[in-house]
Amino acid sequence: MSEILRVERLSKYFSVSRDVFGKSKHFTPAVKDVSFSICRGETLGLVGESGCGKSTLGRMIAGLLSPSGGSIYFEGSVIASAQHVVKAKKPNIQMVFQNPYSSLDPKMTLRGILEEPLKISRYNKEQCSRRIDELLEYIDFNRASLTKRPREFSGGQRQRIAIARAIATNPPFIIADEPVSSLDVSIQAQILNLLLDLRKELDLTYLFISHDLGVVQYISNRVIVMYLGRIVEMADCQTIYKSPQHPYTRLLIDSVPIPDPKHKQAFDLSVTNDLLMPGQLQGCLFKNRCPEKMPVCCEQEPNLVSCGERHLVACHNRCPENNACTIVEI
Amino acid sequence: MASTTNLLEIKDLSIKFTTESGWLTAVDHLNLDIKKGEKLGLVGESGSGKSVTAMTIMGLLGKRRDIAIQGQIMLEGEDLLRMKQDKIEKIRGRKMSMIFQDPVESLNPVFRIGNLVAEAFMVQEKTDKKIAWERAIEQLNKVRIRDPKATARQFPHELSGGMCQRVMIALALVANPPLLIADEPTTDLDVTIQAQILALLKKLHQDLGTSVILITHDLGVVCQFCDRIAVMLNGRIVELATADSLFTNPSHPYTRGLLNSIPVLGKKGRLEPMPSIHNQEARGENICRFVHRCAISTDRCCSAAPGLREVLPNHYVACFSH
């Protein structure tokens, strides 16, 4: 499989305070030193809790935010970089957002919404209407709804429209940022199946961002788990659910309530300190919630190392010093 | 753990709202009992009437001309629907309380956490400010807030969502009410925090013997938390059973549809979503609420509404196919 997107040591810092002249004084790292690549036709799931930087990462790849460090390569050419000005043509990467109520213009009709990306891509009138017909078929709408406005559609229908708009110009790569988290479960299943069918039919590659591990498992081939801006584990979907290596991944998987009465879960009552004080930023960021903390965790940040076939983990416990483990360079 | 006496009995409850196109039935002839010390789950998709039922029990809808409420809600032998407003206000907090979905928005942002909880003690127990503050710190300790003394001096915006939900639970349990209604208490929270809050609610339920009504759309949460589960669809209960029975033998096509629509960790296979209806769904009197989405519906489903019938011990289903 050929590589479609590569991210190298990507970072994004947001300023948290400014001095009197408006110059940033303090920064917080939303994404730090993240590297990975996606192959054509693959779906890469990005999981993590709120504030872990998964949306920031998606927005940087989509070109909605500029990186503070590192670079992004799409189909071999650099599309965003902190080091130098990028002159390449904007790549065709489209995005589906979480909230279908606010991501569609309330004043536009369905025709207008679907036509806009086509017009920008210089489709002529005839091509436009032919393409709109195709799009309506993909999302199972009839032509009569073309004159309706977003408020006349339900949440699930709006999300279908958002997906149709994203695939309108035949992009090879789509970023879906929590596309089903504001929908009811039965609608959620419809949207997930639509995304799977489209992937097969149009040979799409997805970056699928979600906090729901069940959803990510259903749709992804490979999963990245992020914690506070860092990748803590990356592996094939099967591997990560069967043998999670990082204590945070294990915590996440154990916390999902399973609808099976034979599988009674005893949730831990202990309160964890989920916030890090500014002074605690050296070492592993998971140290204050980690059940397997070692002295080295407070001093040194763990590197992402290989612990199996296509399986990377950033944990000192998985990489004893005497063991010859390989630091992976992507 | 649940005893056999009923704490709350909802009898034939109907709630209607006026809309531009006439009355809309949000809750339709609902019958439900909650036993003392029981954890009951109310599941359903948005618009199924689960939150409206909770608001009516708490008396939060008020007496308004555009809302018609019929039926009876008996709490320890007293009908809440026929009670005067000032009496309901006295019962609220002492006999029943509620926690909401968005903990940060539910707390008054201009008061310190300690003041919020202390105020509840001053109202409920008529204690003076100093004692109330100490009781408040004790109460915060009970919901496992780290360093309750320091937290009491903070404002809601300084706490995380999980911490705010703990404060909400502390507030709700100030007077040890026998009934606690939790309306989507963990929906806005991350999974690891959700697990902590569910563990806390379970522990408090064990210690205090409070009956809990947990409203949620997450089948995993009710399965792990509740003793008995009621599945709601468009204002009616379509299936009512113990958690074990419901998940081992889901009998209503809607319940089965819900279970087939969720991606479960560790299970593979394509999801089978239920068909959704584009127009206003069936809300008429004499029609099954699931008829337009049901794969096994017959003519009878369009002419009569199925009532709840016992198909297995303590397992009730409203479907003609059983």
Principal-axis shape of chain B: globular
Poorly predicted runs of 5 or more residues of chain B: none
Task: Tell me, briefly, the overall form of chain A.
Answer: globular
Total helix count of chain A? Answer: 8
In oligomeric terms, what are we looking at? heterodimer
Helix/strand/pairing category of chain A: alpha/beta
Mean pLDDT of chain A: 87
Structure annotation, total helices of chain B = 12
Order of helices and strands of chain A: EEEHEEEHHHEHEHEEHHEE
Reported by name, the CATH topology of chain B is Rossmann fold
Query: Over all CA atoms, what is the radius of gyration of chain A?
Result: 21 Å
Percent of residues in beta strands of chain B: 15-25%
The major beta sheet of chain A can be summarized as:
8 strands, mixed
Write the CATH architecture name of chain B. Answer: 3-Layer(aba) Sandwich
Question: How many E-type strands of chain A?
Answer: 12
Provide the domain count of chain B.
Answer: 1
Describe how the helices and strands are arranged:
The complex is a heterodimer of chains A (330) and B (322).
Chain A: E1 3-18, E2 24-39, E3 43-47, H1 54-62, E4 69-74, E5 77-81, E6 93-96, H2 110-120, H3 125-138, H4 155-167, E7 173-177, H5 185-202, E8 205-210, H6 213-219, E9 222-227, E10 230-236, H7 237-242, H8 247-255, E11 305-306, E12 312-313
Parallel strand pairs in A: 3-8, 3-9, 6-7, 7-8
Antiparallel strand pairs in A: 1-2, 1-4, 4-5, 9-10, 10-12, 11-12
Helix pairs in contact in A: 2-3, 2-4, 4-5
Chain B: E1 6-19, E2 22-35, E3 39-43, H1 50-58, E4 67-75, E5 78-79, H2 85-91, E6 96-99, H3 103-106, H4 113-125, H5 129-142, H6 148-152, H7 161-172, E7 179-183, H8 191-208, E8 211-216, H9 219-225, E9 228-233, E10 236-242, H10 243-248, H11 253-261, H12 299-303, E11 309-312, E12 315-317
Parallel strand pairs in B: 3-8, 3-9, 6-7, 7-8
Antiparallel strand pairs in B: 1-2, 1-4, 4-5, 9-10, 10-12, 11-12
